[in-house]
Amino acid sequence: MKPILPPMEPMAPLSDLPPLNAAMGSGQGQSQTQGTQTSTGLAPAAMSRLEPVTGFAPAPALQAYTVDHLTAYAYAAPVLQSWQLARLTPRVLPWQTVLQSHIDIQPFPDERQDITDSFGNTVTHFGLHSPHRELSVRMSCHVLVGERPRIADESGPGDTWEAVRDALRRPGSGGGPGGLLAARLVEPTRLLPLSPAARRYAAASLRPGRPWLEAVTDLMCRIHEDFEFDPHATTVSTSVDEVLAHRRGVCQDFAHLMLACLRDHGLSARYVSGYLLTDPPEGQPRLMGVDASHAWVAAWSPRYGWVEFDPTNRQRADNRYITLAWGADFADVAPLRGVILGGGDQDMLVQVSVLPV
Length: 357
Description:
By secondary structure, this protein is an alpha+beta fold. The protein has helices spanning 44-47, 161-169, 179-184, 196-203, 212-226, 240-246, 251-263; strands at residues 2-4, 62-86, 96-106, 111-116, 122-128, 132-146, 228-229, 248-249, 269-276, 294-301, 305-310, 315-316, 321-327, 336-342, 346-356. Helix 4 crosses helix 7 and helix 5 (212-226) packs antiparallel against helix 7 (251-263). It starts with a strand and ends with a strand.
């Protein structure tokens, strides 16, 4: 038996998009494992570092989308047994309503069940126990996405990042709502061990006494400015230290880097997977099947709760971001991953369409 970990489909950052509607791709990670804001709402000291990102049309406050996400495998030899985990059901959130969601699996699985993992993601377990040379998993959904909660006092000084770090060290007495879960997401993981290099890189943003929101925003902006989007530079196993050394990667790499930077300073952050809507240039048609998955970061403070930052595109998440799952790193949110017996060589096809309706 062998685990399957082919790469995800690469995509370009929003400012470099070709004439098509592309949900920003992470460039890595299917694990058979697949794997211009309307209101920026950023701290004043960081606002000057932000410029409107091209490729967007302002979205209404509540936007409806349909998403179609197909993953298909063709095997050189029969697969005798297959056990898979799919994290392809969009989350129900205060700003995201799932009107309809369905996962179609072919061949029809011999066993299937949905469970909720420790992060609250819906996980579809399924198994195929008869020989097969092809596997297709298609998720289709219809969602409504509104604006994230506003930060009411972000123009004020706010808590320093050190105060947020200290609150996380005593979640029972100072962590505020969600403090226990946030404290869990300070710890290193197998994909994101402690990194002295990440700590050194983050130090320029996390200066002593700096407000948390301003510091995290500055870190997001620096990653966008200092690293080049290159879908050929990394693989799903590329470490944060390698990304720092070569200064290039894809959105999965940039999300992992930002997580490592924050956690190495005792701050809590989680990896978020989903889709990002962009618009084709004027006069160009919206194409089907050419979009991809995206990855970004949510960081936590007791004052603001979870705030979502996209270092690939230098902006906070708004109603163009459709959330699938979140966890400590990519391994917790891989859209499709599993183990097969047999199969030999394989070819994988991924097609994603994100359409406003």
